[in-house]
## 1
Amino acid sequence: MNDSTDRALRLGTRRSKLALAQSGRIAEAVRELTGRPVELVEITTYGDTSREHLAQIGGTGVFVSALRDALLAGDIDFAVHSLKDLPTTQPENLALAAIPVREDPRDALIARDGLTFEQLPDGARVGTGSPRRMSQLNAWARSLGRRVETVPIRGNIDTRIGFVEKGELDAVVLAAAGLTRIGRIDEATQLLSPDVVLPAPGQGALAIECAAANADLVATLAELDDPDTRAAVTAERSLLAALEAGCSAPVGALAELSPSSRLRSSRGGPKADEQAVTELHLRGVVGSTDGSTLVQMSTTGHVPASPDDVSTPQNMGRELAAEMLAKGAAGLMGERAL
Ligand SMILES: NCc1[nH]cc(CCC(=O)O)c1CC(=O)O
């Protein structure tokens, strides 16, 4: 950067409690990293002001475009996004400088009376407007020989939990990571296993973005990157992109690195000069919103431990998408939520 290196760095953030919590934590990390003050600049995005349902306004990018405009105008130096809200195509003039260690990627259920999903009565009203959640929750209910009525809701996390507190809904489903970040994870009555409900691609991960031209800042922020998280979310987002689906499509994906291979990569001895590899397990799902049809597939690949080259995860996502499309995934994504 040409400007004074002790000038405060401006971090653009949405005003929601979740966004402020996420930005506050990253601001602290950047302060520690650089020794420079970090100032939060609050920005309102279309996704915050629109009263429409996300499935209707398209979802893709509604939370991020105002922050990106501010980055490109030079009004802010960097921004923190929920990775799952970022469109899969990265603009060339903006850099995803860091993807820090991911929180729990799972969805969480908050139900009345401490109930789990299995304990909900037939016809229970479950708040979610996400086609991905509707599809998998309806499929799960079917497998239990029951039905749930999914009710589209909007608003911030507190508002959504409020529907259960006020007795208007039996349950809501939210990202566990969001609940953790605003300090309400203890209210989850169940964490939904990815064997039943796959999260949104990138769920639980943050993205730190800045102007690509600001090479010094890109390099500084890169210190906060977690290569394992980047590999996993790259595979998930590549799957989403190759399905030609947006963040409001009924697509779930989760990539996990096998823990055992981390041991392998850190073990010394005669094998220390071998290329350390780790296994990346990628699961994907696309479903009809009524849950009557799900295309669920998975794949396992070998990637370098803590890769700085994400071409393998990218290919895995693309190849799994091709297999899912061959099994009829495209027809399921064309379906629009009501
Ligand atoms: N689309 C809204 C959104 N974007 C990110 C999160 C939660 C945090 C995360 O997934 O990283 C949420 C709320 C939710 O889905 O419950």
## 2
Amino acid sequence: MEKGRLIKGIGGFYYVDVMGEIYECKARGIFRQHNITPLVGDQVIISVTDEAKKMGVVEKVLERRTQLIRPAVANVDQAIIVFAVTQPEPNISLLDRFLILAESEDLDIIICLNKIDLVEKEVYETIVNMYTSAGYKVVLTSYKDNDSILNLRRMLLEKTSVFAGPSGVGKSTLLNKVDPRLKLKTGVISQKTARGKHTTRHAELIAIERESWVVDTPGFSALNVDFIDEGELSFYFPEFLPCLEECKFASCYHMDEPKCGVKKGLKEGKVSEQRYSSYLQLIQEIRNSRRF
Ligand SMILES: Nc1nc2c(ncn2[C@@H]2O[C@H](COP(=O)(O)OP(=O)(O)OP(=O)(O)O)[C@@H](O)[C@H]2O)c(=O)[nH]1
Ligand SMILES: [Zn+2]
């Protein structure tokens, strides 16, 4: 029996990494009876049936700490949300959607602003300040700046991180810099888009040094958050949290209600205009989606 990490599942086979060796495994029928589907990211126990051919059987799925829905990966620790400071221009509304998704999955979050070699600091300072004061950790990177890559790599050590962000911001480029053995495809947008459209891309765990794992997700240009309950949305804005107890009504949506803590926080500069307007836009979207 060996313990390993399930790194991908394709066509009924599970690929399990045991100390860097990959075993192609079937799952025991017993999982079906118990309605358990092994998931990428699971810690599993396998028995090796053929050492030479690296084949085995998944005997047991160890208890999951967490389970992401999209991408479907177990035991993820943190989300690295990557945006470029330019090319493409940062889309704040989309960034807030990624944040809410990660918050709703209860992940630790790092915002990574990439391509800082392309513009002056003044260009992205406002964004950095806005998210830092909202309570987020923001890191600045450029594939041309080795120190920034080392800093990013440090944040990945001994964790499972999901890389998310729009297309073309440099997710694969950064991962290739962090670990040059990876050789992920970069910059071939047409090819990647074609794949995204016509085939389902399965989530896959990629090992980088010292028990660090990453999931590179395809880029998204739009994200729906309408599965979130309108009453819960404000919990996913961390800077709103200290304001909420000052709302007079427990069911305050922080819109037109009197004595609202969030609007007070907005006046006092504890909540930024832009984040508040993101909130309003999203709650409107959630409400509209409920009408049908
Ligand atoms: N100047 C500059 N260009 C970068 C940087 N990082 C990535 N790029 C370029 O940006 C383009 C897109 O990079 P990718 O790594 O393919 O972007 P991605 O986020 O993986 O894109 P998808 O796979 O479509 O989601 C490539 O041409 C990279 O060379 C950076 O730090 N600075
Ligand atoms: Zn309120």
